[in-house]
Amino acid sequence: MLIGELSRRTGVHTHQLRYYESQGLLEPGRGANGYREYHDDALVTVTQIRKLLEAGLSTQEIAFLLPCATGTGPDLEPCPELLDTLRARLQGLEDHIDTLTRTRDVLHDYINTTEHRVSQHYPPCDLTA
Predict the structure, then answer these.
(1) How many C-beta atoms lie closer than 10 Å to residue 108's C-beta?
(2) H or E stretch covering 37
(3) What are the backbone dihedrals phi and psi of residue 39, each rounded to the nearest 5 degrees, phi first?
(4) Of 25, 97, 115, 124, whose Cβ has the fewest other Cβ atoms within 10 Å?
(5) What is the pLDDT of residues 57-111, one digit of tens each?
(6) How far apart are CA 97 and CA 105, in angstroms?
């Protein structure tokens, strides 16, 4: 199938498919006319790529994990270092969440302190007078 058909069947834009190819995630053949030609298994591969991207993995990580992917679900064969890669990515996300949580708490403190000072300097207006 040509790239346009793969795009239609997967819902992934052609420029994204070309990007996946440039990252070594998809390997189309070339027809006599030079057009990309994809086998039916590319449908499953694109689905796997999309799900791994949704999991927050980079295309480099996906390139490493993709040979371990089976089916269209989040199924991975226990390839060497697979769990180490997934756990490292998860730890990175956990660390980022912790940082965001601390940042949010500090921002709340600034807002609360500022709102308290505003209420001290500018008493509420009496609109009943």
Answers:
(1) 10
(2) strand 36-37
(3) -80, 165
(4) 124
(5) 899 999 988 888 888 777 888 877 888 888 998 999 999 999 999 999 999 999 9
(6) 12
> DSSP class of residue 30?
E
Q: Are 74 and 55 in contact (CB under 8 A)?
A: yes
**Phi–psi pair at 70, nearest 5 degrees:** -130, 145
Q: Own/partner pairs for 92-96, CB < 8 Å, 24+ apart?
A: 93/56
Distances (CA, A) of 50 to 45, 54, 68, 92, 122: 9, 6, 15, 20, 53
Q: Name the residue among 9, 3, 8, 4 with its Cα closest to residue 44.
A: 9
| Helix or strand holding residue 36 (H, E) | strand 36-37
**What pTM was computed for the model?**
0.74
∠16-22-23 over CA atoms, to 5°?
Answer: 90
